[in-house]
# Entry
Amino acid sequence: MNQFKLTLLVALLSSLAIGQQKSSHQSVIEYVNPFIGTSNYGATNPGAIAPRGMLSISPFNVAFDASGREIPLEKDSQWLSTPYVHENEFLTGFTHVNLSGVGCPDLGVIISMPTTGEIKTNHLDYGSAYENEKAEPGYYSVDLKKYGIKTEVTATQRAGMSRFYFPAGTSNVLLNLGLGLTNEQGAMLKFVSPTEVEGLRMVGSFCYNSEEKAYPVYFVAKVSKEPQRRGIWKKHQFYEGLEAQWMGYNGETRMKENFSRAVVGDSIGGYFSYNFKQPTVVELKVGISYVSIENARENLEKEIGEKNFTQVKMMTQRAWEKQLSAVEIESDDENKKKIFYSGLYHASIHPNIFHDFNGDYVKSNGEIGHTEGERYTVFSLWDTYRNYHQLFSLLYPKQQMQMVNSMLSIYDESGWLPKWELNSTETFTMVGDPAAIVLADTYLRGLTQFDAEKAFTAMKKSAETLEDNPLRPGIKEYLEKGYLSVDRGVSGPVSTTQEYNIADFAIGQMAEALGYAEEAKKYKKQSLSYRNLFDKEFNLLRPKHANGNWYSPFDPDKGANFEKNVGYIEGNAWQYAFMVPHDMRGLIQLMGGEKKFVKQLNEIFNNQKFDMANEPDIAYPYLFNYVKGEEWRTQKKVDELLQKYYKNKPDGLPGNDDTGVMSAWMMYGMLGFYPVAPAQPIYTFTSPKFDKVTLNLDTDFHPNGKIEILSNASEGGKYIQQIWVDGKVYKSYFITDRVLKNARQIRFELGENPKK
# Structure
């Protein structure tokens, strides 16, 4: 039996073993569809990754449009900042470092590609159409039609493994360091043996920010079989001056066969070439590190070493099974279960670990640090402070604590809390001071095992530093006037005022929890300054000049669909009208009472002013719960939005997943509660979508260990008739974090008609 057939047999036996394992107990990972979000700008990818993995192997198919017509690689085109789009049909390799559900291009580098025949170095020449895709947590496979090559990939947290099923004849494994999603260039590659290369690729400039802080990702790559030929290619830039007369390689790609010294350049790559007499399997193992080549090699050896593909896949899938089993769903609706677990899967990708196997990592100041715990990165905090961290405080408190401690380490290293941090680089993307909100919210939910005094000091620094404040531009005017004007050059002055208010409220909450009464009073008063921007003529928040005059002409609709406008960031006046979650009762009074409040909310939903695909207004469906007798509108609207935007299909997200925030919104809607007010440990109810859900909580933080959520959802009713908590009638549509976590059972009676 040849090696090709033997490998196929091993893979088949492995699949049978996993299938037997699934039949003995219900597996959670079988309900994950990694293709959800790969269309409709969801920016996810179906590649292989471990929970919180630093490395992932994703198919790279963004060099051609859906019709196969050649186009330039437009990384920011229509916000498609992802290595994979479901509609595209032309694959140019498998990238080893990626982001999931973000709105700007970066990473997407260290791209491998199996080919046959003559070696070609241009991805548009060697790329291939593909078919028979399969994806599950920790695994992806595809057939390359051009070459008749089946490819399978799997990954650990810091290393990955690809398996290429080559036909007989000339076959190649390419490693392209020129292609990628990052806006940075530059790479190094060196053969250290006939079967091993090492090198680096520069990345950075996320959202075209912090370009001066571009940094390397190091790698080591090994093939399982020694090639007949190996080498490096380098494409040279084109010169038009006199020197071009003597350059025979001007603008050409130069092949360097058996070259064993380092090659440096912008468009370089390496190849392993074989001449197989029969079909043969070649495995490629890659380890990465942001610290050094030596650490990349150690990560590879420690996490994969001599393990075979099947062992690595099963190890990672066991890790996913453990991660996703925090929630157990009992329902006959298989489709809804797949939507839910796919969301929990996507939410478990970022933030991801940033430290190597030995604990080394790159600090925010560029020095090498060491951690005995876990160092996390990819903090998309403008997005995640609204619902994401509350979910992980509940389901995965140890992970949330490590995230908080990572934020405090960033403060120690850089002098500031993170805003939108990526691989120890502050990108300063979006607005506001969101880390303060996450720190306070985590502490108020009982996760207090971090240095709260340091956190409070860090929070106050960003709120009180008047000069050279990178987190709060315009703070001096904000403190003097109570708002940011359109005259001082701060982006989205209305939106940013609101964000500063929410952060100030969080600081006040933290101050109160720590016993600082005067500071609590000060910050809570400061958090209400958005009222200076409330215009009763429109019942909306409106931009103002520094002299106190309203900005005119004022068009409340301007700014939808990412259109730039004077007052708001990624939204318009309607989408920011209710974004004061800490003062909803006060806003009701400003708007003239409950009837006008509900009327204005209905205006948003009834006239297509609501944007499900972005963060500022995603809590709005739950705001009807603040008005007695109108709670049914929340239940109706959440149900409609779930059905409209969340599907078990590639376009099954409303838009960019924003590192799991949109998935978190869906999960809360299906579970029946939502954290409507960041930095307040409360939830508000809606109708659950499953008959029974068990939340398996960490007993180190939640002694009861389990919460059961029961309902008669399968009978078709979507309106809450009654709620019971531990057998007693519960008369409020709000529940504190403490009461929810101490409950053993929450039961909903649902009906077909609203209870008004």
